[in-house]
Amino acid sequence: MNVDEIQRKALELGPWVNSFEFDGTTYPLSDRKNAANAELPAPPRKGRAQAFFEVFPDTRHILELGALEGADTVRLARRPGTAVVAVEGRADNLARAEFIIGLHQLANVELMCADVETLDFEALGTFDAVLCAGLLYHLQEPWKLLHQLAKITDRLFISTHYWGGAGTERAADGYTVKLVREEHPEPRTRALTETVLWFDRESLLHAIKDAGFDAVNILHDAPTATVCDMIVACHRTSPHRPSGTTAA
Ligand SMILES: C[S@@+](CC[C@H](N)C(=O)[O-])C[C@H]1O[C@@H](n2cnc3c(N)ncnc32)[C@H](O)[C@@H]1O
Description:
Blueprint: H1 3-13, E1 20-22, E2 25-27, H2 48-55, E3 61-65, H3 71-77, E4 83-88, H4 91-103, E5 109-113, E6 129-133, H5 142-150, E7 155-163, E8 170-172, E9 175-181, E10 195-199, H6 201-211, E11 215-222, E12 227-235
Parallel strand pairs: 3-4, 3-6, 4-5, 6-7
Antiparallel strand pairs: 1-2, 7-12, 8-9, 9-10, 11-12
This protein binds S-adenosylmethionine.
S-adenosylmethionine binds at residues 45, 66, 68, 87-90, 93, 115-117, 133-135, 138, 189, 191-192.
């Protein structure tokens, strides 16, 4: 496809949450006449796939959750020898991801439209590692996802928000959480439900361990009185999976 064809298709599939780069050009191209007024999508966050491979260097079979428009999917799949299953809950996000993956001619990606709160993970088989970025704080029962993932992988990379302690909290399934109404200005990056539960820091780390990931390496932690960020690489050192299947 040439630049004009890519631009035409990109506009057809848009609007985009993030811009994307292909062959040195950033799409969607800005309309020069209206550039001053045009609201261009921001570029996707860089460096996550790199951080993922730094902690899990020998990873080949990867599950990515909440893939949005496939920015990280492409970075994961461009590493030689990998095969990526990317799950995203919104079909229109996934259509844009499919387009970018097609542009890069990546045959090692399987895209799946599904809600991770109801998906049968065990039916997907096992994975060398799972990338769960920007998703855990979009769930109603985030601890359940951690338990599901522990059945299919020994290595889990999480990038998430947690709640810093102030405000209303309530206990659910033994975890301290905050009920949060989804009000992010970009609706296509929100949860699939109107409200979600955010862990506090202690419960986030507890839930990871409760799921069976006993070795936890905190790569980044930014505590505040409200919205906090954490990036954490989780390993399970025991060869026995919670479901009873044995790690490969
Ligand atoms: C904040 S974005 C994060 C995108 C990307 N992983 C990143 O970190 O930049 C959250 C993504 O997860 C998707 N999502 C939210 N809830 C989901 C669910 N229950 N199941 C599957 N995808 C979901 C949203 O549609 C959105 O694409």
